[in-house]
Amino acid sequence: MACSSTVAAGTATPSPSSPGMTYRFRITNVGLATSLNIRFQGHAMKLVEVEGSHTMQTAYSSLDVHLGQSYSVLLTADQPGFDYSIVVSTRFTTKIITTTAVLHYTNSAGKAPGPLPGGPTTQIDWSLNQARSIRWNLTASGPRPNPQGSYHYGQVPTTKTIRLANSAATINGKQRYAVNSVSHVNADTPLKIADYYKIPGVFTVGTISDSPTYGGAYLRTSVMGADYRGYVEIVFENSENEVQSWHIDGYAFWVVGMNGGKWSPASRQIYNLRDGVSRYTVQVYPNAWTAIYMPLDNVGMWNVRSETWARQYLGQQFYLRVWTPSTSWRDEFPIPKNALLCGRAAGRRTRPF
């Protein structure tokens, strides 16, 4: 591998490439609202990594990158010496917005002939099938000859199912977004600090249900409780007409299934329990669902949120309180002595680290 490069929408600076060399491109969607598609004129991308997980090295002519997601692809400069276009366009938007950068060969004779490579526009099935094709590489980064070592995510019994349904709502005459009918509002004190010092009145565990209520949305500081060392199935359910993208702080999870329509227990029959990819952010297609498995191995107060920033800001988020009665440093370090305290915790002394 000759070098590592980053591609960002709006970039037009030529990237020099030597014929015959292979380059790694790290592609990240750091946008606020829109899924993107990327393709390289005349070149195939070999996907090798998704958010820290090695993948099966599948070749793609174009790749959908949803909000908050990152991919690494290998690209070999094996074409005649020209300047090739790197094309990025929006996905699932009424108006398709496109921008380009240049892949410049060191022996370039000028602009490559032919039109820019076209990409998908609003095709949900195309994107869904591509997402399903991204698989974990079981023989990379693990002890041999036993793939994944001794841990097989698909063979661990789940201890709880959490179903999360996003929705749009008008509350007090204003646009809001919700999860299981709760539109989150921030408390006057950071929730982890309030939890650590046991400050009453800041939040209540259980203010958001672990399954959809399908009722009217309302404002609340939403905190869901979960047990440390549990192994949960989380199902994201999207009955709206736009793609959702979800991130969970503090955790990686396995994407075990996604499909159109409504989720039911029978949907588990199509789960991938062998080589689903481990990642931190996952998309949910319109009128569809996505299921993940996640070990609760990290004590704390963790934010679960939409990666669409307007939706996140207006309430499509909540906190997952992973709790244990243990006070052992083995499970969670105490608050650092130089932590800044505010809200109802102002003036308290931090305990020594």
From TrEMBL:
Superkingdom of the source species: Eukaryota
PANTHER family: MULTI-COPPER OXIDASE, OS07G0510900 PROTEIN
Native species: Triticum turgidum subsp. durum
Protein family membership: Belongs to the multicopper oxidase family.
Transmembrane segments: none
One Pfam family matching this protein: Cu-oxidase
InterPro entries: Cu-oxidase_2nd (IPR001117), Cu-oxidase_C (IPR011706), Cu-oxidase_fam (IPR045087), Cupredoxin (IPR008972)
SUPFAM superfamilies to which the protein is assigned, alphabetical: Cupredoxins
Protein name per Swiss-Prot or TrEMBL: Uncharacterized protein
GO MF assignments: copper ion binding; oxidoreductase activity
Residue ranges annotated for the Plastocyanin-like domain, each copy included: 18-107, 190-325
